[in-house]
User: Fold this.
Amino acid sequence: MTLPTTTTKEVAFYMEGAMAAFMDELRDCLADGWTVELGELGYFTPSLNCRREAMEKKELRAASVTLRGLNFRLGKEFYKELDKKMRLERHPQSSSKPESSTPLLSVEQRFRLLDEYLRQEQPCINRAQYARLTGRSVKQAVTDLNLFIEDGLLKRCGAGRNVVYMKNK
Assistant:
């Protein structure tokens, strides 16, 4: 007797259907105000908000109460197991390259890398891209980029998280 074979696509299809059914049931239970526990993983609870100020309970009406969010809390056992397995290390740099593989580059070498990138790859670069390119932390990258601006080599465009740096012509 041979067992029927199941392809990866079929498994994914069944898993997707099971997840959809699970999410429907979870949504229905939370909409009814229930706390939903997922075994040792943890539990979900809805968080509610009153749209208007109420001094007494009698002043509250269902129409003025809305869903503020959804809280998830890990179960104690799951938390303990996660805590046992988790090994944290502090890395001296926030770049994606390990420190040992990144040689220390001079300012001139970093500018040459940046200049080559701006000529070949893209017309502009952001702080995180420069940090990855040169192996520097984001704070060090900002210092470098500001130095290049002061020297008249670059110009800054944008504001906040949308800042990019371009060659100053």
Remarks:
- The helical segments are 8-31, 76-85, 107-120, 127-134, 138-150.
